Amino acid sequence: MNRAEPRPWDAGRVLSRAFPHVVCISCLLLERFGATLGAGQIFLCTLVVPVAVGLLVMFRLARVEPLNLGFFLLMFCGLFISAIGGVLYPDPEMRFSLLSLIELGLIYLTLLPSPAAGFDTGHVLPVLILYLRVVAIAGLVEWALQFAGLKLFSFTEKASWLHYVSTEPGYHVVAPIRYGSGILRSNGFFLLEPAMLSQMMALAMVVDLFIRRKVRFLPVYAAALLASYSGTGVLALVIALALTGLSSPRQLPRILLIGIVGVVMTSVVAIALPDQFSSLVDRASGHDQSGQLRFASQLTVIQTIADNARIVVGFGPGAADGYAKGIAGSMSPALKLFFDYGVVGLLLFLAYFVKMLWRNDARPLSLVCLVLFQVSGGTLVFAPWVFLFGLACIWSRPPTSAEGRPIAAINVKPFQVLA
C-alpha cells in the first residue's frame, strides 16, 4: 500500500490555524506585558494582533466587506468632527489629546476584517476556550497556594526587572478580599485584576454552554469566578442571560443550568469558607465598593455636563481622561464616548461596534461580549478585551461565499495547527 504523500507546506493554512493561538496568548497569557507610558499602557497584543490580522488579509484569509467599511468610516468621521470641535473651540477645563483618537481608531480598525473562505473558523472557539480554561485553573491554583505561603499575584514583586516590560502599574494586581485582610483575590495569574478573571469566566460559561454545548467545566469556571471575589462577571452574566432569555426562550433550560451551578457553588463556599463568603457579601452590598464607583456615580457625572451644548459633539478626544470632577471611578466606555465625542459619536460608535460583534446565530455570545464591554469599565481602549471579543464573535463566524451564503466551518483539535 502506498503511503499518503505529506501535504505541501501551506502558509495560509498554518496562519489560519495559528491566528487564534496568537490572539489568546498575547491577550490572555501575556496580558501583563507591554510598556507603561505616563498614565497609559501599550499592551503587547496592540502590536501583535494588528500584524496578525494584516497577514490574514495579505494571504486572502480575511476580507473587508463594503458595508462594514462604511460603518467604520461613518464612525471615524463622527469622532473626527468632535476632534475638530475640540481644536476650534477648546474648553479650558478639558484636556485635548489627538493620540486618544488615533489609539481608538487603530484598535477598532483591527475589528474591520472578517473571515474569508479559506479561514478555518471552526478552530477559533475551541482554542479560545482552551486558554480560558488555562486561566481558570491557574487562578484557582494561585488562590490556593497563598494558604501554603506562596503568593504569586504580581510578576514584578517576584522579579523587579520585569517592571520595564510590565503593564501592572495602575492596576489592582494584588487585591485583598477586604481592607486589612491577608487573603488575596485571585487574578487568574496571567491577568491584571481579579475583576478581569470574573469577566473571562462569564465569557467561558457562555461559550461552553450555549455555543459548544459543553457542561463539564462549568464548576471550574464558577469556582474561579468565586475566587476572584468580583461581581463584575456575575453582573454581566446575569444581564446577558436575561437578554438571551427574552430574545430566545428556547435557551431557558441552559440559563437555568447556569443558575443551579451558581447556587450550588455559592452554597459550598458559604458552608466550607464562611469568612470568605462574608467578604463576598460585603463586597456586593458595600456602598463604597468599586461597583458603586463604576456604575452609580456615572449618573452624577452625566448630570454635571447635561446642560452643556457640547454634549452633542463632545468635548474632544481625551477630555474625559483629564476631567477633574470624580470621573475616574466611573469610566465606562459609553460614558467616555459620550463625554469625548458626544451623542453623535456615541451612536456612530455603537452602530459600528454592534454591527461587527452581533451574530443572530450566536446571540448569547454577542450579548455577553457587548455587556462585558460596557460593565467592565475602562474597556474602550483596553486592547486585550476588544481583540478577544472580536476573536469570539467575528473570527468564529462562518465565512460567506461571494453570493452571501455561509460556508461550513471545519472543526479541528485546538493544537492541530500544521495539519
Rg calculated over all Cα atoms: 22 Å
Overall average pLDDT = 81
Count of structural domains: 1
Largest sheet composition: 2 strands, antiparallel
Low-confidence stretches: 401-412, 415-419
Shape: globular
Percentage of residues in strands: under 5%
Number of strands: 4
Helix and strand run: HEEHEHHEHHHHHHHHHHHH
Oligomer class? single chain
How far is it from the N-terminal to the C-terminal residue, by CA? 22 Å
| Derived structural class | mainly alpha
- Order of the strands making up the biggest sheet: 1-2
Please count the helical segments: 16
The percent of residues in helical segments reads 55-70%
Key features of this structure:
419 residues; mainly alpha; two-stranded antiparallel sheet; two-stranded antiparallel ribbon; 16 helices; 4 strands; 58% helix; globular; disordered C terminus
Task: Describe the model.
The chain has one domain. By secondary structure, it is mostly helical. The strands form 2 sheets. Strands 1-2 form a two-stranded antiparallel sheet. It has a two-stranded antiparallel sheet with strand order 3-4. The chain is 58% helix and 3% strand. α10 crosses α11 (274-285). The radius of gyration is 22 Å and the shape is globular. The protein is built from 16 helices and 4 strands.
What's the topology here?
Blueprint: H1 11-29, E1 34-37, E2 40-43, H2 44-58, E3 62-63, H3 66-88, H4 98-109, E4 114-115, H5 124-145, H6 155-158, H7 194-211, H8 218-228, H9 232-247, H10 252-272, H11 274-285, H12 290-305, H13 319-322, H14 333-357, H15 363-375, H16 383-393
Helix pairs in contact: 1-2, 1-5, 1-16, 3-4, 3-14, 5-7, 5-8, 7-8, 7-9, 7-15, 8-10, 9-15, 10-11, 14-15, 15-16
